[in-house]
Amino acid sequence: MGPLHRARTAVLVEGDSDRAALVALAGRRGLDLASRGTTILSMGGATGIGRFTQRLGPPGLGLRLAGLYDVGEEGHFRSALEKAGLGADPAARGFHACVADLEDELIRAHGVAGVERVVAAQGDLRSLRTFRNQPAQRDRAPERQLHRFLGTTAGRKVHYARALVETLPATDIPEPLDRTLDHA
User: What are the pLDDT digits (tens) for 90-127?
Assistant: First the structure.
């Protein structure tokens, strides 16, 4: 993730947790993204995709683009890619959608018990138990509790994106992450 002026490929992601997950996956694979001329950029939300494709894609710096996004944001991505002259099929251009979002992908890949083991290893099991005991959480499915827990404290989503990717068996890496990194 070297300087942008040395990049040949920019992987565009919605947020910092998406970036952390892909960086962790690249580390697991032994990929030196900087030497490959690849940078992973957090756009600060899906609505920034138009600015980034215009600035970095064919209309701008001419970098090869790829990305990771939440399926609910697909309309933004299709439109931005088309306006940048890249066609309207995100997957054909190396942009892959998480079924709901990154956290959902990682929770499904680990399973509830697996995420709980990672939370325990990170020293947050007591916090998770306290969180689950809150009235608003008691009747929610365990997956929904975990999803919400991951987003309750500043920095937690980024921390757990990294930790959950690092602890997944190689055979269980969520397809959108795997395919996005294949384009990096």
Answer: 999 999 999 999 999 999 999 999 999 999 999 999 99
Q: How far apart are CA 157 and CA 154, in angstroms?
A: 8
Q: Is there a single domain that holds both residue 94 and residue 10?
A: yes
Q: One-letter amino acid identity for 104?
A: D
65 vs 116: CA distance, rounded Å: 35
Residues 66 and 124 in one domain: no
Say how many domains are in the chain. Answer: 2
pTM for the model: 0.95
Beta strands in 43-110 (DSSP E): 64-70, 95-98
Q: How far, rounded to the nearest angstrom, does the alpha carbon of residue 168 sit from its chain's CA centroid?
A: 15
In the numeric block, which tokens belong to residue 27? 């580390």
177 and 93 fall within a common domain = yes
Give backbone dihedrals phi and psi of 64, rounded to 5 degrees, phi first: -70, 135
